[in-house]
Each structure stands twice: as C-alpha cells, then as structure tokens.
Amino acid sequence: MLGDWVSQAIDMINADAIAIHLNPAQEVFQPEGEPWFRGVIDKLRFIKKVANRPLIVKEVGNGISMEVARMLASKVGPDAIDVAGTGGTSFIRIESIRAGTMSEADVFNGWGGIPTAISICEVRSVYDGVVIASGGVRSGLDGAKAIAIGANAFSMSRPLLLAALKGYDETKRFIGRLLKEFRIAMFLTGSKNINDLSKAPIVFGPAIISWLSQRGIQCRHIRHGK
Ligand SMILES: Cc1cc2nc3c(=O)[nH]c(=O)nc-3n(C[C@H](O)[C@H](O)[C@H](O)COP(=O)(O)O)c2cc1C
Q1: Fewest beta carbons within 10 Å, which of 1, 47, 140, 172?
Q2: How does pLDDT run across 27-59, given as a tens digit for each residue?
C-alpha cells in the first residue's frame, strides 16, 4: 500500500524526486495530527527502494539534529537532507493560533527547535550528502550564508508562497531579486563559484559558538581547518 501511494504521488506530477517530512512537533499539536512515527526509518528505507527517485528527508520548521541525521545517513541513505530549521514559519505557532483557545501548543510556543544555521552544522557534521538549507531563509544573502557554513543549496517556503499568490510575474521578479542578492554576496566575498563560496571565511556569533561547543560539533570549515 505504501509503495502504491509513493508511485501514485510520483506519477501525479512526474516528479523528479520525493521529499518526506519528519514533523513530530506539528503532528503532536495539530488537533487532527497523527504523531505516529514508530517504524519511520524502515518506511523511509522502503520508500527509497521503491521510489526509484532521489529521496529528500526534511523537517518543516524545527530543524534536523545531528542524531537524526546520523540515523538517516546510516540506516536510510537519503540523497538529501533539508534541515528546515527554526527562524521562519513555525507550525507550533500556526497550530496554537488555529486552536484559538489556550492549548498545549501555547505552552510550547517558545520551543526552540534547532535554528537553521545550527541545524546545517549539526547535519553537516555527520552527513556527507546534499544538505538543503531552509527555514527562515529570506534573501539571497541568507542563502549565501547557508552555503558558506555547509549547505549545498537553499530553499524557502513562505516568501515564495506570498509571491506566488500575487502571480507568475511577481514570482519571477522575486526569484530574480534573490539571484541578484546571491551573486552580490559571491562578488563581495570574492567567490568565483559555489565551491569558493563554500570555503569563504566564516565568523559565528557567541550563541552559535556556545550551542556547537555544548553539542561537541565543529562546523566543517573549522574541522577541515579551512
Ligand atoms: C502554507 C505552508 C504549507 C506547507 N506545507 C508543507 C508540506 O506539505 N510538506 C512539507 O514538507 N513542508 C511544508 N511546509 C513547510 C515548508 O516546507 C518549510 O519547511 C517551512 O515553511 C520553513 O520554511 P520558511 O520559513 O521559508 O517558510 C509548508 C509551509 C507553509 C508556509
């Protein structure tokens, strides 16, 4: 049955890849949520086998930890991990607003999750595949920073959704602006290509340094001494 769903979803849009989200925080606070994650690793491995397409595993705005990335890397082997960290759209906040009255989601409204920049470092420290940065990415400059700290690509949901609601031209204009911002960041860091950008010098603020040191994680640049 799971195999049929996967094939149908792929055929529906002739998909080039399949993305599966791990969204426990959203499911647990959704009135109609389904927080049933037992066996998820076996299911992901099965999907990778039957989909015959690259598999992306992602969060939806709470970040992927080093432990989850390590488990995915060793037991599933996804082609990409999209960190979808905190800093942008928050489904805990959305569920809290939807619930209207005081709910458990209110209590967890300040639940940190893993900020996107940190989640990139967490995932990158244990996973050599493609890392996609998302969650609060709002400009080409944000995207360039994400690549400099270890991501291979960046994506965004809310800003593109807002642009898309205004139509095709606005979406095209928005993407054009993003690309321009990204190219300016490359120019200003003397990066001729993405590889150069991924080796650009980086300086972290104290909050990120504290987090990474408590977690025993070194960002790839520090680890490789670049
Ligand atoms: C309206 C809306 C619907 C979303 N639906 C999905 C979904 O079906 N599957 C999914 O993996 N993520 C979904 N997301 C989460 C996004 O993929 C993304 O991880 C999250 O919004 C953080 O990125 P952002 O800060 O750029 O919005 C949705 C986001 C929004 C705003």
Answers
A1: 1
A2: 998 888 999 999 999 999 999 999 999 999 999
Closest CA to 135 of 208, 200, 81: 81
Average of pLDDT values for 127-137? Answer: 97
| Residue 20 alpha carbon, nearest atom of ligand 1 | 11
Q: How far is residue 105's CA from residue 22's CA, in Å, rounded to a whole number?
A: 18
Residue type, 201: P
Number of CB atoms found within 10 A of residue 41's CB: 15
| Domains of the chain with bracketed CATH | 17-223 (3.20.20.70)
Name the closest-CA residue to atom 22, ligand 1.
135
Q: Is 83 in the pocket of ligand 1 (CB under 6 A)?
A: no
**Residues 24 and 60: beta-carbon distance below 8 Å:** no
Query: 130 CA to middle of ligand 1, Å?
Result: 19
Helix axes 2-13, 40-51, angle to 10 degrees: 50
pLDDT mean over 71-88: 97
What's the Rg (C-alpha) of the chain? 18
Q: What is the pTM of this model?
A: 0.93
pLDDT of 94 > 90? The answer is no
Ligand 1 pocket: which of 60, 64, 97, 120 to mutate (most atoms <8 Å of CB)?
A: 60
Query: What mean pLDDT do residues 4-32 have?
Result: 93
